[in-house]
Amino acid sequence: MTDPHPGAGASRRRHPLPEPGHVAPGQTLQWLAAGWRMFTARPGVWMIQTVILIVILSALGFVPFLGWAVAPLAFPVLVAGMLAGAQAVDRGQPLRVDHLFDGLRHHAGNLLMIGAFHLFGALLAALIAAAVGGSAALTGMLVGAFAGMGLAAGGMMLAVVVFTVLWVLLVMALWFAPALVMLQDVSPLDAMKLSAQACLSNVLTFVILGVILYVLTWVAMLPAGLGMLVLVPVLAGALYAAWQDTFAERPALPLPAPPASAPAPGPAPDTDHES
Predict the structure, then answer these.
(1) Number of domains into which the chain is organized
(2) What confidence tens digit (pLDDT) does each residue in 124-171 have?
(3) Is the residue at 10 inside a domain?
(4) Exposure class string for 193-212: b at 16+ Cβ within 10 A, else e
(5) Can you tell me the mean pLDDT for 15-33?
(6) Distances in Å between the alpha carbon of 28 and those of 118, 187, 202, 241, 259?
């Protein structure tokens, strides 16, 4: 019997999962250079996509009561769409504005689940940090005087450190997750695990990348935020290049040519002679 949905079986095949590879710190500059080349290939389309992205996320943020939750849910879907556009450019295909919505057309449920993990992780990190800071402040109030003030201040600093560590771990889990779901059909939870594994096993590389992006973000925000129209597409291309180097399968090396075979021996000469 013919399967009415021929792609359904393939979409359920999650294994074997891609293995994260080793990436050197110097590759961060190569990723950003790749993102810049992708941007300069179609700058107008990329800028239009970025404007639409910012407008959508801003509009979702103003949704009454739920805006704070809806925007994080939608963010991985839109990121996946930009990655689909980067893949099209990388393959020499035309970049379209509606590439931004490929995440809605493909893997929307899994990408929204990544957004849900994003939201839950951020809330959990905030709650844990608040609990640490709040308990320290309460203890300081009970102790009183200068010792209590020092304890409370130390507790607040500890809460900031705890939140920062948890937030960095969350970002590591989210970094490659949209690419793994969108481009390699990995399930959401596996994608976040693999993303965290890749970032932790190449921690120096991604720390350097994070510092560079932090600086570039401040530079992009200086001209009234207009630099983000360039930085966002460059970042999408850099993320695509980083995914390629870290997870994408590389073509196998050609098999070595077999050694030249010796010529087949001819028929043995006839040694029987009539006497």
Answers:
(1) 1
(2) 988 888 887 777 666 666 665 555 566 667 777 888 888 889 999 999
(3) no
(4) bbbbebbeebeebbebbbee
(5) 88
(6) 24, 27, 11, 9, 41
In a domain, 176, yes or no: yes
Return the pLDDT at 179: 95
In one-letter notation, the amino acid at residue 254 is P
User: Tokens in use for 237?
Assistant: 């291309």
- Given pLDDT bands bounded at 50, 70 and 90, which one contains residue 181? very high
Containing domain of residue 140, as a range?
A: 23-244
Indicate whether 218 belongs to any domain.
yes
164 assigned to some structural domain: yes
Of 238, 239, 243, which is closest to residue 35 (Cα–Cα)? 238
Q: Which amino acid does the sequence have at 265?
A: P
Given this model, what pLDDT does residue 218 score?
92
Q: Residues in the chain, how many?
A: 275
